[in-house]
Amino acid sequence: MEEDRGLPIIMQCAASYALSEYDGALGARGESNVLLDREKLTALPVSGEPLVIDYRDIVEITGGDYRIELKVVSKEKLTLSNLGYKYEDFLRNLINLNNEVVIKDLLMNETLVKSGVEADLVCRDANGIEKRKGQSELRIYETGLVVVGADGSFARIPYSYVAQVRIED
Q1: Where in the chain is the domain with CATH 2.30.29.30?
Q2: Whole-structure pTM over 0.70, yes or no?
Q3: 95-113: per-residue pLDDT in tens?
């Protein structure tokens, strides 16, 4: 099955959805088929109009208790639940697809030199206190390094900011 713009569907599954305002005012809700492609998430409710959310419009993605919440720039929140055994794969794909679009936009088509380099990540504040730790992927671009955390967060570090590189085991 192809989406309206001809983009191949990366993943699809049945889910319950609830669309609400940030303040909690409930809008649409019900059962739907949810599709992910390279540029957007589409919820196709059993009844009602399709809901299309471009990854560029997503402000925050959170997952927990087998629920996924998406906050979008329009001050709305989409909650997806009842994804069943596809929950973890769906969340991982959603975060990765969202990151790819954002990274592409931020780097404005800068040439990727190397990707897929796995690394252990430790982030410390100015006082040396550990703030984050975990697995990450390093992507080397022409003018900077992008660190993509396993939780979906990412940071771009221009080479001019790098004071030291240490390689161990």
Answers
A1: 11-106
A2: yes
A3: 989 988 988 888 867 888 9
* Vertex 48 angle, CA 99 and 2, to 5°: 50
Question: What are φ and ψ of residue 142, in 5° steps?
Answer: -60, -40
Four-way CATH pick for 11-106: 1.10.287.3610, 3.30.70.360, 2.30.29.30, 2.40.128.110: 2.30.29.30
As given in the structure block, the two tokens for residue 135 are 């697995």
Q: Which residues of 11-30 are buried (b: 16+ CB within 10 A; e: fewer)?
A: bbbebebbbbeeeeeeebee
Cα–Cα separations (whole angstroms), residue 122 to 45, 145, 149, 168: 42, 15, 10, 14
